[in-house]
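REVIEWER CHECKLIST
Item 1: Sequence provided? yes
Item 2: Single chain? yes
Item 3: Sequence as submitted:
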Amino acid sequence: MRILITNDDGINAPGLEVLEKIAAELAGPDGEVWTVAPAFEQSGVAHCISYAHPTMVARLSGRRYATEGSPADCVLAAVSDIMVNEPPDLVLSGVNRGNNSGENVMYSGTIGGAMEAALQGLPAIALSQYLGAATADLANPFEAAAAHGASVIRRLLDHGDWTSDAEFRLFYNINFPPLPAADVRGIRVVPQGRRQGSNFTVVPYTAPNGRRFMWAAGGSQTAPARAGTDVAVNMDGYISITPMRADLTCHKSLPELVAAFEDEAV
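Item 4: Structure as written out by the authors:
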C-alpha cells in the first residue's frame, strides 16, 4: 500500500511522527509512506488553498516534503506533482494535537487535508487526539492514537464506504479520547456534534505602538454536547468515527423551500 500523510501542526509536529508509525504499520514492509506536510503550523486554516500566491515545496529527504501552504495545498502538491505518476492508495491527515470533534471540524486544517483528498477521489481519513487532564502527565500524550490507530483504520478500510464514483466521496474523521491507551473503552460510529455554549471568540490586544490586534480563542473543550455525538462519546472514553463529505447542503430543508419558491415570479 502507498500511503500519503499530512497534517496541520507542521512537519516537525509530534503527532505527525505518531502518524508515520501508524502508516508504516499499515503499509507493511513492501509499502511506501510519503509525507507532504506544512513547513509551519497551519491549525485553523480549514480547507483553504493558496489560490492567490505560489507555494514553495521543498524535498527534505527521500519521500518527505514540506510546503509553505495548508494541508489541502500539501495534498494538491502530492497528487498533482510529487506523486503524480503513482498516486497514493490512502491519505491520512493528523494526528492532530487536540480534538477535531464537534464545531472544531469546521475550522480544522486536519479535516481540510482529508477533505481535499476525498475531492481528488482518494480514500482519506483524518485523525485527532483529544487532550485533557488524563493525558497531561503521559510521556506520550498521543498514546491512545499510537496504540489504537492502525487497528481502527484497518477495520474502517474493511467496513467503510469507499465508493469511488460517488459525487461527493466520503472521508472519515477519527478522534481518540483524552485517556491513556489502556483506558479507552471502545469505538463508536457517531455523527458530528456541537458543544453547548462554546464558541470561538477573539481577544483584542493593543500593541505598544498603538495598533490594534486580536488573538483568536477557542471555547471550552469539555462543554457538554448532545448524547451520541462525537464530542459526547470522546468525553465518555470512546474513539469516535464520523463519516463526512464535502456537501454542506441541508437536504432535509430542500423540499419545503423548493415548494415555496418554484411558483413565485422574480
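Item 5: Key structural point noted by reviewer: The chain has a mean pLDDT of 97.
Item 6: Recommendation: ____
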